[in-house]
Design brief:
Layout (H helix, E strand, L loop, with lengths): L5 H19 L8 E2 L2 E5 H20 L23 H22 L14 H23 L8 H21 L14 E6 L9 E5 L6 E4 L6 E5 L1 H8 L11 E4 L1 H10 L4
Parallel strand pairs: 3-6
Antiparallel strand pairs: 1-2, 3-4, 4-5, 6-7
Helix pairs in contact: 1-3, 1-4, 2-3, 2-4, 4-5, 5-6
Keywords: Isomerase
Organism: Streptomyces ardesiacus
InterPro entries: DinB/YfiT-like, Maleyloyr_isom, MDMPI_C-term_domain, MDMPI_metal-binding
Amino acid sequence: MTLLAHERYCDEIAHQVGALRAVVTSGADLAGTVPTCPDWSLEDLVRHVGRALRWTGLIVRTRAEEEVPVDRAPGAAGPAAPGDAAALDAWLAESGEVVVGALREAGPHARAWSWAGIDTAGFWARRMTHELVVHGADAVLAAGLPVRPVAPDVAADAVDEWLDIVRFVQRVLPGAAADDLRRPGSSIHLHATDTPAELNAEWLVELPDDGITWRRGHDKADVALRGPLTDVLLAFYGRLPPDAPGLDVLGDRELLELWLEKATFG
């Protein structure tokens, strides 16, 4: 697996922060429920993202050797008054500057604690990129705006990372929902239909007893999810229904539904 360049992640974080800011200032109802994260309002979602960016910035800037409480990150609490779109926008902009500045200064190989045991700034550059991609889609859906395509290299890497995360959860969190993704002999195929062949935006995911395995490439599987890459990514992440326009499910739909139910951080 080849990761994107560190500067590419940094550039995409800045881009995704800008896109999220555009939602905040679009006139969307900040108190409205986020359909894909129904426990949150749109403002809750934005504050979650901003806190994550500032926390990451602190971890990377200080070269943390161990976990740091989120509330130690300067400015993590966000604007005092709820519902102030201008203040929320300014805070989010600063949050993006904090993390991008820390990541660029550190470079990919600098020491920085992570929950995944990959203790580098590079881990955080990748994680925050895809945190923003997915929560950016959450925000757009909450605002009733059209989902914009994610850059193909970023979207493909987001699928890779999500598969790595699910595998990690299976290994280290006994009893997590992802433990139920053990179906020896079963497989899922993802196929992006709008990308050049050299990107190889296809995946085969297998579910043996010792935890999921995956590889890029075309192969037959029990169920296939096909469509534009951004839509495949968001459906595989549970942000779009697999029957959304432009997506096709071929084969064992129940197996795909099992994935969508069980593939979570917890």
